[in-house]
């Protein structure tokens, strides 16, 4: 029997947890890893271990996993978005990667159906080859389709909600529910979806001229390379933009570009990014965030709100 890390409770508690986790992943055909370091799965390259990390083989595998995890009353967390910091003690329960759900299907009316694990760069490339416009806003976003829906990912060119026609969700009881876009309340970096796992998304695109689509994508990728620290691990923008202002501008005004805690550093290229210069830990990032917030409040009077999502055990 695979062992759960000693970091959780007494020997009896660990044994009970171990049995529950084993039952949750019984019969799963995809990859199952115990005590998996999540730093390998986050864009920050930071994060403690998961009790168990599962890559379901397909949607049927997701249904089995969700039902069994629910029956065992274990928490479940889905990887996919890039705007994420996993704390150093990791995530308890079951962590899911949809990496094996990579199918893209074409439907009539310039509609693409993409499974939840499809990477946005892959999806954009697929759309360009078929002269379909509507995803140019996502150029350079490295997350998955599911992650981009859940957080309503966006750039200055647009947001995920602009392209979504419907979302397929596996609910906690194993039921598969298709949610039309009009039933979903999208907000700033969030989407009000039923509790469950997004396994697929229908995207309403439009016919375009391939050369024109490629130009918009290339121009925006160039802009991102020139203005954002894309060569170092990060989780994208750390803070929400204050009303009628830019968080990056406020942090820069407070003199915080280049300030660091351990290997976590405020980017010298874009002050709303914290980059991992090598061996940063979540505690370093959190200490740096606290320092930035305090100095910005003291020097500018602005109280910065986190856009970064924090998960895991502290």
Provide an overview of this structure.
The protein is of the alpha+beta class and 314 residues long. The chain has seven helices and 21 strands. The protein has helices at residues 11-24, 59-71, 120-129, 145-150, 210-227, 247-253, 282-300; strands at residues 31-37, 49-55, 76-78, 84-86, 91-96, 104-107, 111-115, 132-133, 154-155, 158-159, 164-171, 176-180, 185-187, 190-192, 196-204, 206-207, 234-237, 260-261, 264-266, 273-276, 309-311. The chain has a five-stranded antiparallel β-sheet with strand order 6-7-15-11-12. A hairpin with a 3-residue loop joins β6 (104-107) and β7. α1 packs antiparallel against α2. The relative contact order is 0.13. The model has no long low-confidence stretch (mean pLDDT 94).
Strands of the widest sheet, in order across it, are 6-7-15-11-12
Strand segment tally:
21
The gyration radius over C-alpha positions equals 20 Å
**Inertia-based shape:** globular
Task: Report how far the terminal alpha carbons are from each other.
Answer: 27 Å
Q: Beta-strand percentage? A: 25-35%
Give the helices and strands as they follow along the chain.
HEEHEEEEEHEHEEEEEEEEHEHEEEHE
Helix content range? 25-40%
Low-confidence stretches: none
Q: What is the number of helices?
A: 7
Largest sheet: 5 strands, antiparallel
């Amino acid at each position: 029997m695979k062992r759960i890390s000693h970091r959780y409770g007494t020997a009896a508690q660990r044994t009970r947890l171990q049995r529950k986790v084993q039952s949750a992943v019984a019969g799963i055909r995809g990859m199952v890893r115990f005590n998996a370091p999540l730093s390998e799965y986050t864009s920050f390259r930071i994060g403690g271990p998961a009790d168990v990390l599962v890559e379901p083989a397909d949607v049927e595998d997701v249904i089995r996993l969700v039902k069994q995890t629910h029956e065992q009353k274990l928490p479940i967390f889905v990887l996919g978005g890039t705007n994420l910091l996993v704390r150093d003690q990791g995530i308890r329960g079951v962590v899911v990667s949809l990496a094996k759900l990579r199918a893209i299907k074409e439907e009539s009316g310039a509609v693409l159906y993409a499974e939840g694990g499809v990477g946005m760069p892959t999806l954009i490339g697929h759309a360009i080859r078929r002269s379909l416009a509507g995803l140019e806003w996502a150029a350079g976003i490295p997350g998955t389709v599911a992650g981009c829906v859940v957080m309503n990912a966006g750039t200055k060119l647009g947001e995920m909600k602009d392209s979504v026609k419907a979302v397929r969700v596996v609910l906690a009881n194993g039921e598969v529910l298709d949610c039309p876009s009009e039933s979903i309340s999208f907000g700033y970096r969030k989407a009000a979806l039923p509790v469950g796992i997004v396994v697929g998304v229908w995207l309403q695109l439009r016919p375009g001229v391939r050369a024109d689509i490629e130009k918009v994508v290339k121009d925006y990728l160039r802009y991102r390379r020139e203005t954002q620290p894309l060569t170092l691990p990060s989780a994208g923008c750390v803070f929400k933009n204050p009303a009628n202002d830019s968080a990056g501008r406020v942090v820069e005004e407070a003199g915080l570009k280049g300030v660091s805690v351990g290997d976590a550093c405020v980017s010298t290229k874009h002050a709303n990014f914290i980059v991992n210069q090598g061996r940063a830990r979540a505690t370093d990032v959190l200490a740096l965030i606290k320092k930035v917030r305090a100095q910005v409040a003291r020097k500018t009077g602005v109280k910065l709100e986190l856009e970064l999502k924090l998960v895991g055990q502290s």
